[in-house]
Model the fold of this input.
Amino acid sequence: MISCDVRQKLLREYSDAAEKLVPLSKELANVALSYEADMFMRIWERFRNAQQRCEHSRRALDFHTACHGCVIAAPRGT
Ligand SMILES: [Zn+2]
Done:
């Protein structure tokens, strides 16, 4: 694997974003049991934003990797 600073940065952003999803999804599960609709919607919005950030980072990472070729492609059966 070619070492690449940009890729490192994008990877870190992605894992940060993914980490933030975990506590939010737990919060969401808790509030879903509590029948507090307003609270649920508020946390749901935060969860959705975090999820979008996560997806965005993931896509940026994939895009960079594809363009830059800084990861050796998985071997394909020929
Ligand atoms: Zn790269």
